[in-house]
Amino acid sequence: MQEIQVKVKCTDKEVSKAISYWLLHFQKWVAARVYFVFPLHIVVASLWVVRIDEVGDVSSVAFWVLCAFIQLCTAYLLPLGNHQKAYSKRKKTVYTFSDEQVETQSKDTRSEYAWAFFAKAHETPAAFLLVDSQEFVHIFPKRCFENEGDLEGFRTLLVCKLDLLSVKKGRGG
Known about the structure:
Blueprint: E1 4-8, H1 12-26, H2 28-55, H3 59-89, E2 93-97, E3 101-105, E4 110-114, E5 118-123, E6 127-132, E7 137-141, H4 148-161, E8 164-166
Helix pairs in contact: 1-2, 1-3, 2-3
């Protein structure tokens, strides 16, 4: 198979969309917290607000709002912020994908990774996401591929080397 080269420079918006998509669609525990636990805490806090007139105690409301905020931060905002910080430090990087390995080349560094370093891959409507063994998400916006042939070749390579979880097109991300 030929090598596929991809020049990647992600914008802040692309990083936010890709990581949000990954957290909410592929990390079920995050989705459960964001879609269920966080709203549940807000509902309980709201019910306490109704009771404040009777009880006069706002500490319960503050407790439930704090719990909701902690759930949201630990499950969603913290990982999102960490990835944004990591990507803001990266300059344009050229990735070369082959049957044997993944090679990265930037102004300052050059690295080679065995395919075994990557645990899984996901395809979103706007990007490919490679998740490494340390749960860091490598984002490859589809706009960075030179042509449809490279895009399809990359998809085929991911299916051969990793479990690619394809996502239906048309949803945000």
